[in-house]
Amino acid sequence: MIIIELQKLSKKLEIRGAPAIGIAAAYALAFSQKRDFSINEFNIAFERLHRTRPTAVNLFWALNCLKETFIKLSGVSNIYPAITSRSNSNS
User: Fold this and answer.
1) Does residue 90 register a pLDDT over 70?
2) Whole-prediction pTM value?
């Protein structure tokens, strides 16, 4: 699972720098929804990534942006393109 791999890389400091950590987390969280829309899977991925680096401000910013997008689009049948698009955005 990509979330677990990202979690390991981040904890080992193999992903370094606040922006890189945020970007990697955003894509991993978006990827968690690629196969099937699942609130449970999204929440599990969100919490795992959130715990990865307790001081990473960009990580929390990126995850919270995607969570807001996820909540707004929860009625959409294929949410992956929308949250991937949000992952590509910088605002």
Assistant:
1) no
2) 0.70
